[in-house]
Every structure is written in C-alpha cells, then in structure tokens.
Amino acid sequence: MNSNFQSLLYDAEERYLKSGEIDALKSYTTSLSQRLETYEILRDKEIAIFQPIANQLSASFQGQQPDLERSLRNWLAVLRYCAIAMLQNNFEFLERRLLEWLTDIVRVHQVQAIDSDLYNVLQKQISSMLTAKQYSLLQPFLAQAAARLVPDVATLSK
Amino acid sequence: MIAIGDLLTDQPVLGNYFAPDAYLTGDFESGLIENRRGDRLLALPETLIQGIYAGLDQELGSASGIVLFNCGRWWGKNFYARFAEEISEYYHKSLAEMEMVELIQCLKQCWKTHGWGTFNLELDYYQQGFLVVQNYNSPFAEAAPSGDRPVCFLEAGILSAFFSQLTGKQLHCVQTSCESLGADCNYFILGLAERLKAVEGWLSENQDHQTIIERLKVSKAAH
C-alpha cells in the first residue's frame, strides 16, 4: 500500500481524517479503475511493446546481442515494476523493490548507450499504446526509473 | 533476431529479495518475526548488546575480543549457508552461477535490511590479495564501550567466515577504523592471516586505515 495512505490510516486511529486527507484518498480511489486498465494494457501488450524495440536495437547494436538481451530483460522488469508501482501510486515500492537493487548491476555492465536508446524508444512505444491520461499515470514512474538507470537521458528530457 | 517471447519464458529478472517491506514479516498471533521464507528472526535490544560487551569485558578482559570474533565466525558460517540457500531459491540460480555484482548487491541489501548498517565492498586491492569492507551505522560499534581500539569483533568474525566460504580460502579479517573511535565508518580488511599479521602492530601505533592498506600493498610488492 502507498506509504502515505498507511500513515493516514495510523493517524485515523487518533482522530478523524481531515478533508484534505480524505481528498487525497478520494483522488487515488477514483483513479484506481484507470490505473487497473493501464496495468492490464501493459500486461497484455508486453511483447507488442518490446518486440519492435528489440528489432530496432538489434540493427543499431550489431554484435552486442548478449548485452542487448540483458538490457531488454532488465527493462521488461523495469516496466513490470513501474506498472505495479503505478497501480499502488507508490514511488517507494519502485525504489526499494527494484531500483536500489538494479542500479549498481546496470552500472557495472556499462551498457549506457544501449539502455539510453532503449529507454527513448520505450517511451515512444508506450505513449503510442496508451491514452494521454493513462500515460500520465505511468510516466512519473518511468521517469523515476530513468533517473536512476539512464541519468544522462533523464536529465536531457527534463 | 531476439524474440521477446523467448526472453519472457526464461527466468524473468527479479528485484530486491531483501526489500524490507517484503522481507520482514511476522506471525503476530504466535509472537514471531519472520523473513519471507518463514525463518525466525530476532530483534536484539541495544541494552542486550551493551550487556554482552560489559559482561564479557568483566569476565574475560582483553580476551573478550577473541571470544566475540569466534562467535562472529560461527554466526558467519551459518549466515553464509542460509544466505546462499535463500538467494539461490529466490533467483533460481546457485551462488556460482550468479554474477559477482549480483551477489554483492544481495549481501549489501541483506546486511541493510537486518539492521547491521550499510555495507560496501571495495575490490580495489583484490589484485594484491585483499578485500576491503566498509560498514556505516554499525549497531555493534554504537553499543560498544569506548576504548582505544576498533571493537566490531563480531562483524569481523562474520566477514571472515562469510568470505572464507565464498572464496574457498581461509581468510582472516581485521578492523582498521571504527565508528566507536569517532571514524566516519568501519573499515575491515580481509586477507590471508599471515599477510595481515603486521596490521595488529600498526593499529597499536594508531595508524589509520589508508596508511595500513598502503603498507599492505607494499608488503605484497616485497613478497
């Protein structure tokens, strides 16, 4: 659960929640059906999103198939974790469960060029498959992942 | 040609097994704290750690460090076995099949989630035959009585046993800087016991970590 809500629920043991606090809960619960829809699209279109990326990058990075496969596996996981973090609207989940873990591993492999291109194409692929509203729910989590995994690209796209 | 479908049918990339919110759970009905596999965990009160230091010091005096080091070695041996079992089971590969960086990440996260501080392994002196571990916010340094020498004997013992099992070589471990003495972090040097012999003397001369590691490098060159 989103840690802000968790702490709201703790506060609610001492007192009734204030209107502003209820509004935050309302805004999350009303967005939940859209979050679920977005999650389902990402789940169902996982291959459709990534196969064109694999094809495009295979051409650009010939002779680097093992590195490319590793990066694709990593970003399949990144999108899966972004999707579940988006569902919960929980940035800490993404940080603790994946980014804190993956960032050093990615850095050691020194595949910045592949990952940067991959992230750029991934953004385009996803935004073409989601509505603007759905993309806006996911985008902050993608940006959070990019800031850790491809910091150069993340800085440029700010 | 890379087929994404094939990548997905292989073992997927999994995240941080030791993420605190996933790793620490509880069977609160029966009063147990458990890890995500259901193994029992125990929270140690700070005063108990202080009591262990004080009791050992009273009974054994300067020998208490050796006792704590040996306790750490026992702990480390079991810790290694449990750690290896847990991560192999979760990531579906043996320690030998894991990349070094993945293994170190696991150890760092495991260390942190258990509340033993933040851990970092430096491989800069690997070619000279030494590993250097940095640990910040050690609960064992914090609870230790003030003295004039590093006091994290338990951790030194754990590290010695853990890396001995990991590398298949009998490695000793010496602490060269300690938070209990006002240092920023705790430094530990791992290496063969005979190569680390001189460190005890340098510590009594109050040499700092950097000087000690530089001297060790030279000792290798003279070897």
Structure keywords:
heterodimer, A: 158 residues, mainly alpha, 87% helix, B: 223 residues, alpha+beta, four-stranded antiparallel beta sheet, three-stranded antiparallel beta sheet, 9 helices, 7 strands, 15% strand
Provide a descriptive summary of the structure in words:
The complex is a heterodimer of chains A (158) and B (223). Helix content of chain A is 87%, strand content 0%. By secondary structure, chain A is mainly α. Chain A is elongated. In chain B, helix 4 crosses helix 7 (153-167). The longest helix of chain B is centred in the middle third of the chain and has 28 residues, at 64-91. Chain B has 223 residues and is an alpha+beta fold. Chain B is 50% helix and 15% strand. In chain B, strands 4-5-7-6 form a four-stranded antiparallel beta sheet, with helices on both faces. A three-stranded antiparallel beta sheet of chain B has the order 1-2-3. In chain B, strand 4 (118-122) and strand 5 form a beta hairpin. At the A-B interface, helix 3, helix 4 and helix 5 of A face helix 1, helix 2 and helix 5 of B.
Task: Briefly summarize what is shown.
Chain A is mainly alpha-helical and 158 residues long.
Helix content of chain B: 40-55%
Biggest chain-to-chain interface with counts: A-B, 28 and 23 residues
Number of DSSP E strands of chain B = 7
Q: What is the ordering of alpha helices and beta strands of chain A?
A: HHHHHHHH
CA(first)-CA(last) distance of chain A: 29 Å
Please give the number of β-strands of chain A: 0
Mean pLDDT across every amino acid position of chain A? 92
What separation lies between the terminal Cα atoms of chain B?
52 Å
Sheet having the most strands of chain A? none
Report the major sheet of chain B.
Answer: 4 strands, antiparallel
Total helical elements of chain A: 8
The poorly predicted ranges of chain B are: none
Please, how many helices of chain B?
Answer: 9
Oligomeric grouping of the chains: heterodimer
Strand content of chain A: under 5%
For the CA atoms, what is the radius of gyration of chain A? Answer: 18 Å
Q: What class do helices, strands and sheet pairing of chain B give?
A: alpha+beta
User: How much helical structure, as a percent, in the residues of chain A?
Assistant: over 70%
